[in-house]
Amino acid sequence: LLALSFLISKGVSEELAEQTSTAEEELEYTISTTSLSGPSFNYSGTNPELVKYQDAWKFVTSNESFLMKYRNFNTSPTGANTTSCVNATMIEMNETSHSVPYNYRLLIRTTTGRRRTDDYNQITTN
User: Fold this and answer.
1) Which one of 3, 27, 78, 81 is most buried, counting C-beta atoms within 10 A?
2) Is residue 75 part of a domain?
3) What are residue 74's phi and psi, to 5 degrees?
4) Using a CB cutoff of 8 Å and minimum separation of 24, what contacts does 40-48 make?
5) Domain of life of the organism in this record (predicted)?
6) What is the pLDDT of residues 93-122, one digit of tens each?
7) 2 lies in some domain
8) Is the Cβ–Cβ distance between 105 and 41 less than 8 Å?
């Protein structure tokens, strides 16, 4: 499973808020398909400028909603059932246990081309 998230918070510090537009410009996501291997994903996760956004504990400063720009836990080699948009709302943050309960809303494109949304709660730990 390939799971890569870029979290961009509405409640980031002023310094990071200024950098957000630059980071969004750099978050170019492309999917190209080949007849032999299915989709090929090109993430910006290896960009050194974006590393600071990969650890939410370092830049999240409030419990406002997040927009995870790119998240894929798709196991289909044809690119079906891809999660194209994830909105996560932090419910609370426990600094001692580094656990964070979230409510997630997913937009999923199915194999038939239909879109659906799923809501669920999850506790994330570090």
Assistant:
1) 27
2) yes
3) -85, 130
4) 41/2, 41/72, 43/4, 43/70, 44/6, 45/4, 45/6
5) Eukaryota
6) 777 777 777 777 777 666 666 777 666 666
7) no
8) no
Q: Does residue 1 form part of some domain?
A: no
- pLDDT digits 0-9 by tens, 33-49: 333 444 444 455 566 77
CA nearest 119: which of 107, 97, 109?
Answer: 107
Q: Report how many domains make up the chain.
A: 1
CA distance 60 to 21: 17
> Is the CB of residue 69 less than 8 Å from the CB of residue 29?
yes
Q: Find the length of the chain.
A: 126
User: Quick check: is 41 in a domain?
Assistant: yes
**pTM listed for this prediction:** 0.32
CA distance 40 to 72: 12
| Alpha-helical regions (H) of 1-126 | 14-26, 56-59
